[in-house]
Design goal:
The structure holds 2 protein chains of 2 kinds. By secondary structure, chain A is α/β, with parallel strands linked by helices. Chain A has 27 helices and 24 strands. In chain A, helix 15 crosses helix 23 and helix 24 runs parallel beside helix 26. Classes of the chains: A alpha/beta, B alpha+beta.
């Protein structure tokens, strides 16, 4: 989302500026900024209404599906249950019609009572609690102003929460003091059975460094807990550790404390003033101020504030030291305020040595690595092409996805014997397992099962398919669908008797033990040393936007063979840049029912990597176009599995020059990426068939160019998405300079204008 | 084009050659978010969550 103003999604609403504790490590009261003294104690209802209206307007203008509001303080419970009920009611009233409202409150829990819990239950408010460990650890800082311990009250509050509303308990925040024993802190928190814990580094800057006994005091302290947590098989989510693990695997961090995720947070004080993240208070007096407020300024204006956008630049926004650091993708420079030194945030964190050591320690102990793709590979794919090496890198990630799917514990519980059989087969024949589960419709089935739309039993047939291909002897109860047993990539036993059927696989042969049924091996199409499966039997193949054809006759297969061989030859001669990718990744052709009007029909499905579905084409050139076009969707689907090219939560839809209806961002991106290849097809086709190729080229290059600019200006692309779309534009740019007959250009322009006019009149 | 050097880590963990028995152990933990992203109920793009709440 580089170059755009990111939507704000998290709103920390200060409901009370005072606190009933006097913790000496608190960033609100005990650090440089003292602006709290001039604010109203409790947020007034008219301010809450204005806050809610601003959030609602922002959610609508940015097309946000959900927003989070965190009630904070001071101590928010000091507002009292009635006022909190009123505040939550106002927030719900105004925001819920615009976006899903996720509510949280963060409290010290000393006042927590059934009356508060009833209010929070009524509004589905998740409750986080601050506690620094056992009594000794907690009371080191978290005391009343008169020095009295808060420990018993906090524990009583948590126990009440656990008894009365355990579903609202979101976790415990623990601020670290390395004078405390880390394991005792961990164990004492664990005893309270929170769903999550996070350990916070005490706020500090280079000008006001934290207390420490060594350079890596905090890493040593956290490392001791990490080792114990791993030894305990991670009995609780620990946000800091989970974030390091996630970022190690290329996923997002779960907290602003580490990671390179953009900030989408704004704090709104009790007087309606907008502030940047309020832990900036540790830097200098007035540091979080924006000069904007809910009465005069919209959240769109806040999103443009330099203080907000400064924390949305990913690695670019970090110091040179951080950018060169090998753990930067996990660390992200640490919490923004902790980088402050002499009027600048352009520094590593004051906890740099700790973060480096902790992240390195967690990474060393973490067993798996993420699939990685080279910068050049992404660029080649973004350009619209991609050869064997590029497609192989996508295939690898698809195999990993399928291995994760087939080992999901829900599937293992539903089909324990088949799961065990597959584990055993995998030990001896991993390549065969991977080859069978790479079949496009295995993922379709597995996702269908996990989403409650498909039965688990197909796992047995997958195990039988592996046995058949590896020459292993296996007797297994088959999964029968519509009188047939389908073994992916192997074949189908049709016309079997009943649903309770045992099959025997022996030396690659498959038969029903009761002798019923007829075995039909898969059929393939061949062309110039490449073959694809004609998938006309898999019960999970009917996942495309057009109905699947039934089993093909031998004559129909022969027709497909003729078309396929001719189309392949045409691709090899005239569209050779696409051939290596197709050869590496196209495994399956799934016949669709013909369109009664004679229109060409083809499709790719997001979960069916490797398959192109098509109705019998009019001629080989049409099939060549359909294969090239649909394989673009196959490639991009796999890229989107691996990388975020756009913000999926943006619900806004966009004009697509080839569609009557507005499209979500993924639809527009998919269409545009595919139409680069369509424009390319007609561009080259002009040599042999100037009519209609010239008109088609003029049309598709104009529409694709327009769509690329829509994508680029959507404000919803990630940094990688911006670069990806820019590379798509680079491919198209020289084609736009191709001179075409004036009347053809004019017709294309007029058709585009008419399409846009029709679209606008409909909307 | 990116900030990650020559290799861009993806959100998909490489378990192509990890025994299925081990993969099963990671499921629900490391693999949960990986599976979450290929099924549409899970939001993908991360933002920096406020650290002073959980």
């Amino acid at each position: 989302m580089k170059g755009h103003h990111l939507a704000l999604r998290q709103f920390v609403v200060k409901v009370h500026t005072r606190c009933d504790l006097a913790c000496d490590h608190c960033y609100v009261y005990e650090h440089a900024d003292q602006s709290w003294q001039a604010k109203p104690k409790v947020v007034p209802p008219e301010t809450v209404t204005r806050i809610a209206e601003r959030i609602s307007d922002h959610a609508r203008s940015r097309g946000l599906s959900d927003v989070s509001v965190i009630l904070h303080g001071g101590e928010p419970l000091l507002a009292g249950p009635e006022r909190l009920d009123e505040i939550l009611t106002i927030l719900n009233l105004h925001i819920s019609p615009a976006a899903e409202l996720r509510l949280k409150v963060h409290t010290n829990a000393v006042l927590l009572s059934k009356r508060y819990l009833d209010v929070f239950d009524k509004h589905a408010v998740q409750i986080g609690v601050s506690l620094d460990g056992d009594r000794e650890a907690n009371d080191r800082h978290r005391r009343y102003a008169n020095g009295r311990s808060s420990y018993d009250q906090v524990v009583r509050g948590i126990e009440l929460l656990q008894r009365h509303s355990p579903h609202l308990f979101s976790g415990i925040l623990c601020t670290i003091d390395t004078a405390n024993d880390p394991i005792r802190v961990y164990e004492s928190l664990l005893r309270l059975q929170p769903p999550k814990i996070d350990f916070l580094l005490p706020h500090a800057t280079w000008n006001d460094p934290p207390p420490r006994r060594s350079e890596t005091d905090y890493a040593d302290w956290l490392g001791a807990i990490y080792d114990r947590w791993e030894k305990d098989a991670r009995p609780v989510r620990i946000r800091l550790f989970d974030s390091i693990i996630r970022t190690t695997y290329g996923q997002s961090s779960l907290s602003e404390a580490i990671g390179v995720e953009p900030s989408s947070l704004v704090v709104i004080d009790t007087d309606g003033s907008y502030e940047q993240v309020d832990s900036l208070k540790v830097a200098y007096d007035g540091a979080p101020a924006t000069g904007l407020d809910v009465f005069r300024d919209s959240l769109d204006e806040v999103a443009r504030h330099p203080g907000i956008t400064a924390r949305q630049n990913g690695v670019d926004g970090l110091s040179a030291t951080c950018q060169a650091c090998p753990v930067v993708s996990s660390c992200g420079g640490g919490l923004y305020p902790h980088r402050f030194r002499d009027n600048s945030f352009d520094n590593p964190s004051v906890y740099c040595a700790d973060l480096f050591q902790l992240i390195s320690h967690v990474r060393e102990a973490t067993p798996m690595q993420a699939h990685q793709v080279s910068r050049q590979t992404i660029e080649n794919l973004a350009a619209g092409y991609g050869g064997e090496a590029e497609i192989r890198s996508l295939i690898g990630s698809q195999v990993s996805i399928r291995r994760a799917l087939i080992t999901d514990e829900r599937l293992g519980s539903a089909e324990p014997d088949a799961a065990r059989t597959l584990v055993d087969l995998d030990e001896a024949f991993r390549g065969v397992v991977n080859s069978v589960i790479a079949h496009p419709y295995v993922r379709v089935w597995a996702v269908g099962f996990l989403q409650g739309r498909a039965p688990a039993g197909h796992l047995r047939n997958i195990a039988a398919a592996v046995a058949a291909r590896s020459g292993t002897h296996l007797k297994i109860r088959a999964d029968v669908r519509s009188g047939a047993v389908h073994l992916p990539t192997v074949g189908t036993l049709v016309d079997v008797d009943g649903d309770d059927l045992w099959i025997e696989v022996d030396e690659g042969r498959v038969r029903a033990i009761d002798g019923s049924g007829e075995w039909r091996p898969v059929r393939t199409l061949h062309a110039a040393g490449h073959s694809v499966v004609v998938e006309d039997a898999d019960p999970y193949r009917d996942c495309h936007q057009w109905p699947a054809a039934g089993r093909l006759s031998d004559a129909e297969v022969a027709q497909w063979q003729e078309s396929f061989a001719a189309a392949w030859e045409l691709i090899a001669s005239d569209y050779s840049e696409y051939l290596p990718g197709l050869r590496a990744g196209l495994t399956t052709l799934m016949p669709l029912r013909p369109d009664p009007t004679g229109r060409d029909v083809s499709s790719a499905a997001r979960h069916a990597f490797g398959a192109v579905a098509a109705a019998p084409p009019a001629d080989p050139a049409t099939l060549a176009l359909l294969l090239i076009h649909e394989f673009q969707h196959v490639k991009l689907g796999a890229i989107l599995d691996m990388y975020d090219l756009y913000d999926e939560t943006v619900e806004k839809t966009f004009y697509a020059p080839w569609r009557p209806d507005p499209r979500p961002l993924e639809g527009l991106l998919q269409g545009t990426y595919a139409h680069i290849a369509v424009a390319d097809f007609w561009r080259r086709r002009r040599r042999v068939a100037p009519d209609p190729a010239t008109h088609e080229f003029a049309r598709w290059r104009a529409q694709t160019a327009e769509a690329i600019e829509t994508l680029a200006g959507s404000g919803a692309l990630t940094e990688l998405g911006d670069a990806f779309v820019a590379r798509m534009r680079d491919t198209l740019a020289p084609w736009l300079l191709d001179r075409l007959p004036h009347e053809v250009e004019e017709q294309a322009r007029a058709a585009s204008a008419a399409h846009l006019e029709a679209f606008q009149s409909q909307s | 084009m990116n900030h990650y050097g020559t290799e861009i880590p993806s959100a998909i963990m490489d378990i192509c050659d990890e025994p299925l028995s081990s993969v099963a152990k990671y499921n629900g933990r490391e693999l949960a978010s990986m599976l979450g992203r290929i099924m549409p109920e899970t939001s993908r793009v991360g933002v920096a969550a406020f650290q002073a709440s959980i």
